[in-house]
UniProtKB/TrEMBL annotation:
This is Protein HGH1 homolog. The lineage of its organism: Eukaryota, Fungi, Dikarya, Ascomycota, Pezizomycotina. Residues 285-339 form the Protein HGH1 C-terminal domain. Belongs to the HGH1 family. Gene3D superfamilies: Leucine-rich Repeat Variant. InterPro entries: ARM-like, ARM-type_fold, Hgh1, Protein_HGH1_C, Protein_HGH1_N. It comes from the Eukaryota.
């Protein structure tokens, strides 16, 4: 015999919008407290919820929120069901790029959950016609990047900042084919995708900064691309990693003059990133970039050590300090003599 809650779940498919709305509103808390009620009848409630993301905005809002909660649970059955539904994904991507979509940020949050499903890496080849207003490419990934950039000031959709797309990029970039995408100059705008997001490492949004930092770190696992990462005329990533971990400390003149121009003579009110996990991520990216001799030599040349020294001294966080110590060990060691180097150029540093 069905419980009252299970009966209420049945009302989300009711033909009357007012009944659907009331049912979804009352069920929303139970999507975290008792998610099992949505797994009955071979996940029929999930099928209904996926259909309702195109309903009236308030109804869709509740349906999307419930799906967000359900796909975030440790039980991956619902996540797999939603993430592998190609038709649903097409609807989701279509709604995301609609400049009038009122629930775009919720959809971005849902996509961030779905990106934890490894199979979603297939998005790298997915296409759809972009709205003219977006001025983008047919590749869905390029559309998401352009949404992310335009969301900075809500210039594309007044209802959305698209910050959670940074988490989408972070999870997807764990896969090699996505890393390659972020490093490949795109034909439609002649821009390397990673260069579109690196500028947000000091953005006011914690979500945006965290997702971008993780994406940069993940892409940095591609060792052959490190020359491009460090090249001032290509990705030039160092200023965007070092600025967030730099405070308003005073350095010796010799140390200051050796630093990258962007890090010299910072204003007295300059602050480090307020999120220690982001600082740790940036330092771990620097560790990755010491995989090659080129990276190590450049960091020594531009006085990265003093910045790490001060970070270690001033940030009271075990993870940050441990990362600082690991980086310093690499930067301060003597390189092997020519001809006897220990093949560091081919070594990946696990972080």
């Amino acid at each position: 015999m069905a419980t009252e809650l299970e009966e209420l779940v049945g009302f989300i498919a009711n033909p009357k919008p007012t009944i659907r709305k009331v049912a979804l509103k009352n069920l929303e808390p139970f999507s975290t407290e008792k998610p099992s009620i949505f797994k009955t009848q071979d996940l029929t409630p999930i099928k209904h919820l996926k259909f309702l993301i195109r309903d009236h905005p308030e109804i869709a809002q509740h349906a999307i929120t419930i799906l967000i909660n359900l796909t975030a649970t440790e039980d991956k059955i619902i996540l797999e069901n939603v993430a592998t539904d190609d038709r649903f994904l097409g609807i989701l991507f279509g709604l995301l790029v609609d400049p009038e979509e009122p629930n775009a940020d919720l959809l971005a949050m849902l996509l961030a959950n779905l990106s934890k499903w490894d199979g979603l890496k297939g998005i790298v080849n997915r296409t759809q016609d972009p709205p003219a207003r977006l001025q983008s490419d047919k590749l869905v990934l390029n559309q998401l990047l352009d949404l992310f950039v335009k969301g900075m000031d809500k210039s594309y959709n007044k209802n959305a900042n698209f910050d959670y797309l940074s988490y989408v990029f972070a999870d997807l970039s764990k896969h090699q084919e996505i890393r390659e995408f972020f490093l490949k100059r795109q034909d439609y705008d002649d821009v390397v995708p990673l260069n579109k997001i690196k500028v947000f490492t000091e953005h006011q949004s914690d979500i945006r900064r965290k997702g971008v930092a993780s994406t940069i770190k993940n892409v940095a696992f591609d060792v052959p691309s490190h020359s491009a990462f460090l090249d001032e005329d290509q990705i030039n990533i160092l200023p965007y990693i070092l600025l967030p971990i730099t405070g308003n400390e005073q350095y010796d003149e010799d140390e200051t003059l050796a630093m990258l121009p962007d890090l010299q003579f910072l204003p007295p009110d300059k602050q480090r990133d307020s999120d220690n996990s982001i600082i740790q991520t940036h330092i771990e990216t620097l560790i990755l970039l010491t995989t090659t001799r080129e990276g190590r030599d450049l960091m020594r040349k531009v006085s990265v050590y003093p910045i790490i020294r001060e970070t270690h001294l001033r940030v009271d966080d075990d993870g940050v300090r441990e990362a600082c110590e690991r980086l310093v060990q690499v930067l301060m060691r003597d390189e092997a003599e020519e001809g006897t180097e220990d093949n560091d150029d081919n070594r990946i540093v696990e972080v």
